[in-house]
Amino acid sequence: MRKTRLALIIPPVMPHRHRDPGSKQSLPHIGIGYLASNVDHQRTEVVVMDCPIEQMTIGELLKRLLQYNPDFVGFTAYTFQINEAAITAAAVKKVLPHATTLIGGYHATPVPVETLKKFPSFDVVIHGEGEQTLNYLIDAVSGSGDLSAIEGVCYRNGDQIKLNPSRALIQNLDTLSFPAYNLMPMGKYKGYYTVFLLRYRPALLLTARGCPYQCTFCYKLTGSKYRVRSIDSIMEEIKRDLKDFNVNQILITDESFTLKRDRVILFCERLLGNGIMKKIKWVCQTRVDHVDAELLKLMKRAGCHTICFGVESGNQEILDKIGKNMKLDAAEEAIRMTKHAGILTFSNFIIGLPYETKQTVQDTINFAIRLDSHMVTFALLTPYPGTKVVEMAKKGIGGLKQITDDYSKYGKLIGGALELEGITRGELEKYHRNAYLRFYLRPSKFFRLFLLVDISMLLLMLLHKITSFLKSSKGVTTKDQ
Fold first, then answer.
1. What are the distances in angstroms from CA 114 to CA 71, 105, 425?
2. CA-to-CA distance for 137 and 153, rounded, in angstroms?
3. Among positive and negative, which fits the CA dihedral 364, 365, 366, 372?
4. Given pLDDT bands bounded at 50, 70 and 90, which one contains residue 415?
5. Pairing of strands 227-228, 418-420
6. DSSP character for 247?
7. What pLDDT, in 10s, does the model give residues 222-250?
8. H or E, element range at 361
9. pTM
């Protein structure tokens, strides 16, 4: 008997002037990897098609799909990619009308009903953690076709859209199979922080899911409860990645890797004990108030290369109002200690936060320069579905004003979704541009920019900025652009 066939797609890139400039790294998609590895392989065969990394157009994708003839075609997309995923799904529908199209990920999960209403090319939304839901869905569609009892899906029932309750979060993450990187072109990915001919072979590693913090700008697909994998399971996955894929860089995807100090110590001790730290470098992200000098020194010895810190603002009042629950002096101390440990520091900031004024924006830029991390990013606040920012913008809370609902303009670097009562979009973009110029146009920082950004995409961003400036100078408002 023929197995059910599933194709999981990272949709092709369709360049437009609002797309964020891509970082020079390209990484395997860990979410797709987990879905692919946790399907019931006794009954379902699966392929992964990473269109951006394989430079695959829609036409080339359709040829491959026609050869494979899948029963299910699943897509993942962030908000600024959702239009592209929908266009690709519509093309798939034309050539494979029998296939059921699925969408999941950070955009569809918080707005499943809206996603199906707005994008008719999708048949089913899988919302939340999808590993278990996907199997139940495949069984139901392949059998009775009745999806009414499947938790974690939103689907079409004739002319109606039905939203089923969410599925409970997976409590024992050790029950999940390791991501199916064997189905991805691992030799084509590029790691973080490489320059010239140096190139890492990266793999992503998830050691925990969930975040207990309540920042207004963040949507937590995996919930607020912090759930961890065992260190034994983590070590086995790292060993597999070394053996099977010859990786030499691990990107830990946990939102706050050092949340449990004792667990990080055990992780580092295991890396040191089996000599893995000699074979890989690893990168993590965490909060500034969850590191200390002793821990950082141990992390460095165990192979930690870079730590990314979410600082967000250089104004304490703004930090308090967005629920960040951290102090600026903690950020200064964390960066100082991390540098002293010999680990590269990367700080993330957001411009245009709720209650922001021109002075608080300047405070953020000045603080970023004073903090003097090795590298920074400045994002423009974006009202991603599922965040508190969306409701605040609708009601004008914190001075936020949403100026478009075009998801293609929801990029953090090139976009145009929000402005503030006292700061126009054009002014926000000017501050954003000046923040990068002031930070990186310094002898000690200039060449670090080449570690981060694909220069061709950086030029695209600059072209967008120049175009926006010329239009505004001719009297064209941001809303008209």
1. 24, 14, 26
2. 8
3. positive
4. confident
5. unpaired
6. -
7. 999 999 999 999 999 999 999 999 999 99
8. helix 358-371
9. 0.90
